[in-house]
Amino acid sequence: MTKPFPAKWPKEFDPNSSSISAESFLIEQMTEEASPPKLHRHTTGQLSITLNGHAGIVLQEGYWGVPVACAAWCPAGTYHCGVLSSNAQVLFAHFDPKFSLLLPNVPQRLVLNSMTLEMLKHVSQKKLKYGDSNHSSKLWEVIVQELSLSTVLPKIFAPLPLNPELRRLTEQFISDADCRNKTATDVAKALNISERTLRRRLLENTGLTFAEWLVQIKLWVGISELRKGKSVEEAAYEAGFLNPSSFIVAFKKVFGTTPSYFKRNV
Questions:
Q1: More confident residue, 37 or 136
Q2: Which terminus of the chain has a smaller tally of CB atoms within 10 A, N or C?
Q3: Stretch 106-122: mean pLDDT, rounded?
Q4: In the chain, which ranges are continuous DSSP H helix?
Q5: Are 63 and 56 in contact (CB under 8 A)?
Q6: Which part of the chain has CATH 1.10.10.60?
Q7: Structurally, what CATH architecture does the domain formed by 164-265 represent?
Q8: Is residue 10 very low, low, confident or very high in pLDDT (cuts 50, 70, 90)?
Q9: How far apart are CA 222 and CA 49, in angstroms?
Q10: How many other C-beta atoms lie within 10 A of the C-beta of residue 118?
Q11: How much is the CA Rg of the chain, to the nearest whole Å?
């Protein structure tokens, strides 16, 4: 089940505090679901990194998925709202705008390299803030430098439906490999709606046909499996592609490169 923020943030944390240069924390417990998600903004820039489960970012122009080991970056002042699955684990980092000048000035989804991800986990676990010590400040400076070099996920990847019923359907398809073999007829029957209604709602919510939406779901699973260290072949079959070749073709169409190149260079 997906739940929009606000999440249960640390009591002492204020994302609009003028004292923040750079700090992070882990979120594992969400508040009760509210519908629809409410857009909000902060005076600090926000980076939300998916560590486990399924997460997405809602912006004024739409809703996009954020796979495991990837992050959603929202510059200060950006209206946004996060959406998490019930098993999600997300690490947040907030930055003073002056400290994050190297980062994009528009919302982006970033693919984090292993070193950056581990450094962010470290500063979060140790509660290290910029300015606490020379050591912690240098760590945060390196993190920002590395984030600025991150691969950006294309906007055509994983547009998601805001409709609550379709959101739940999306999470189910990501979580359950058997679901990814279902046809539009199967899904419409399970939802007790006509196939035509299903296709219309998906198109209205994502701009995608059912077939295109299903490929995006499979790519989401595939890229998450690659980030976990799986081979291209393993990721292809885990995602639900018939063979590695079809995974490679779909991946290249969206990302402009092959899964093997992506795996080696991210």
A1: 136
A2: N
A3: 94
A4: 114-125, 134-148, 164-175, 184-191, 195-206, 210-227, 232-239, 244-255, 259-265
A5: yes
A6: 164-265
A7: Orthogonal Bundle (1.10)
A8: low
A9: 18
A10: 10
A11: 19
Torsion of CA 230, 232, 237, 239, to 10 degrees: 80
Contacts of 236 (CB under 8 A, 6+ apart): 222, 243, 244, 246, 247, 248, 259
Residue 80: both structure tokens together: 């946004």
Q: What is the pLDDT of residue 234?
A: 97
Residue of 209, 262, 207 whose CA lies nearest to 236 = 262
Q: Which fold has domain 2-152?
A: Jelly Rolls (2.60.120)
Half-sphere exposure of 79 (CA within 13 A, CB side): 7
> Residue 154 has what DSSP assignment?
P
pLDDT of residue 74: 96
What are the tens digits of pLDDT across the range 31-54? 444 455 689 999 999 999 999 888
232, 248 contact by CB (below 8 A): yes
Residues belonging to the chain: 266
Structure tokens at 148: 């600025």
Q: Whole-model pTM?
A: 0.84
State pLDDT tens for residues 168-208. Answer: 888 889 888 999 999 999 999 989 999 999 999 999 988 99
Encoded tokens for 227: 């980030």
